């Protein structure tokens, strides 16, 4: 398993090794001991699986605040997606900065997103599936969102001139200006 740091402290790009032959492949997509050896001791308690039928579907930018803040380990089960993490920890030197990576069935890459970051993705192929682990259970009373295309964040989404497919909830999410984040830099373990 290859683990790489990104430009945002705590966000990691993880690439499991695949062992293939004429039948297909085998990959270990999660191993707590390997991650612990790399200093990642997040305990995951819930797995989620989402299908987006159309390319250009955007989900996010979502987060769950304290006391049920979630770290996520995200991978693409089928298709391709552009996965994004935005630092929303007040006082962080990278507050409001983002990183984005293409995750696909083919490249097997995963993105580890700690608590204190907003998360979103855009599908790049029909029938794209996202599979992710969460470090806390879903708690709707603590969920929050930021608008996906906020110019103050400036995510370079691969929209290719097409209107994204959004839920009503995501389309109505607030912007970053005036956002009062529930996260403080250094307070999340």
The biggest beta sheet reads: 6 strands, antiparallel
Name the structural class. mainly beta
Shape: globular
In total, how many beta strands? Answer: 15
- Please state the average pLDDT score: 94
Strand content: 35-45%
Low-confidence stretches: none
User: What are the secondary-structure elements, in order, as H or E?
Assistant: EEEEHEEEEEEEEEEHE
Radius of gyration: 16 Å
Total of helices: 2
Helix content: under 10%
Strand arrangement across the biggest beta sheet: 1-2-11-7-13-5
Measured distance between first and last alpha carbons: 23 Å
In short:
The protein is mainly beta and 189 residues long. It has helices at residues 32-37, 168-171; strands at 2-5, 12-15, 18-21, 24-27, 46-52, 58-64, 72-78, 80-87, 89-90, 98-104, 110-113, 117-123, 128-134, 143-145, 183-184.
Overall description:
The chain is mainly beta. 5% of the residues lie in helices and 41% in strands. The chain is built from 2 helices and 15 strands. The protein has helices at residues 32-37, 168-171, and strands spanning 2-5, 12-15, 18-21, 24-27, 46-52, 58-64, 72-78, 80-87, 89-90, 98-104, 110-113, 117-123, 128-134, 143-145, 183-184. Strands 1-2-11-7-13-5 form a 6-stranded antiparallel sheet, with no helix packed on it. Strands 10-8-12-6-14 form a 5-stranded antiparallel sheet, with no helix packed on it. The longest helix is centred in the first third of the chain and has 6 residues, at 32-37. The mean pLDDT is 94.
